[in-house]
Amino acid sequence: MDFGTAIGLLAGVAIIAVGVIRNGGDLYWFFNLNSILIVFGGTFSATLVNYPMKHVMNIFRVVKNVFTGEDYDYQNMIEQIVEKAEKARKNGVLSLEADLPKIDDTFLRNGIELAINERDSGLLRTYLHLELSNIERRHSMGQEIFFYMGAYAPAFGMLGTIIGLIIMMNNFSGTGSGQEIDAMSFDVAQKFAQLLSGMGLALITTFYGVLLANLVFLPIGGKLKRKSENEMMLKNIVVEGIISIHKKDHPILIREKLMTFVPRTERLTEE
Length: 271
Known about the structure:
This protein is mostly helical. It is built from ten helices and no strands. It folds into two domains: 1-31; 33-271, no CATH class.
């Protein structure tokens, strides 16, 4: 599990709560069901308009990836590829067929199987890069949805604030109830207090929109993007390794080439 995501969300909420309390505020001032409905409902509705329903429904599955830990061991993957390269160089690529059931990584296993059945290295590279492109496209869909939700939330927060201000000003003038205001019954102090109270309530909607965008939607989109980049780098290592095996490059050269994908700091740490 990726505890950083959970810690970040909880810490963000806690810091805001402490800031409210230390400034003399009460937390219940910041809870309003109508504001939540406008921001959440509006954001979700706009997302449904922008994307097919099946893609929007997939975000609940995608969110789970944000809380799962990363396990991208580039060095271990390179060693696996070099081991297969040594065997293929001695006994031929076809000899790797017996090792397929023992390979845990699905992408590596499918790639080696494709290398066994495809003689043309150019076509092999095309097939593997096509698979990479499709994976990257699927990943980008989930990221994009959260980035758009991060744009929608503040907009609906502002919309809720505008709605609240319109209702508040109508109530202040007395036109909201359809009653004439009697000069004798018009209490300026009371009306002004109601105005300030209503303005604070109206601004809560903007607060929800900004909070959700900058603490939830945009960071989740960013986390998914980072995870996707790391996974794609691992898969690029696999692609280059499989093509090198298919071309019967020397295992030492394969290792040196694939190590260029690994950040130098990680190489120095692990070597």
